[in-house]
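The instructor's notes for this session suggest beginning with a concrete chain rather than abstract definitions. Hand out the sequence below and ask the class to guess, before any prediction is shown, which regions might be ordered.
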Amino acid sequence: MIETERLRLRPLTDADTDWWVRLHADDEVNRFVGSYTREQAAARLGAIQQQWAQRGHGLCAVELRSTGETIGRSGLNWWEEFGETEIGWTFARAHWGRGYAMEAARAVLRWGFGPLGLKQITAMIHHGNDASVAVARRLGFTPLREDTVLDRPCVVYALTRDDCPTTP
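After discussion, reveal the predicted structure:
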């Protein structure tokens, strides 16, 4: 579990299936990350749990420490086809504009570059996702390459441990 001033990040579990479906049902939220049926969400959460077991990291539910409400997801995702660990963040629209993505991502970077010992972390951001580009740039990420993720073009941003301003 990772804690910040306002947030708690914990591994996602099967118990998060209905929440995952609700999060991705919002057209503004799923514009870049897609929507899920309950069956698809259960399969995705199963893959996330498998990644936790195999790699010691994965995506996390992001909760408000003050209330325990789950407001989004963030964490690290290993992409076998790219040989890269990606940071990601997705939040319920009601919680946009409050700095939660930055706060969660900074904590995830400290975790990834610190205890996990990663040398580089990427952020795969689909074209038009200006809010995520702004977060990535504020975190110190720079463009690495153009690529295709989930059948859609994106820019892959990268940050190395040595260039990370939040590295312990």
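Then share the key points. The longest strand covers residues 70-79. The CA atoms of residues 9 and 122 lie 19 Å apart.
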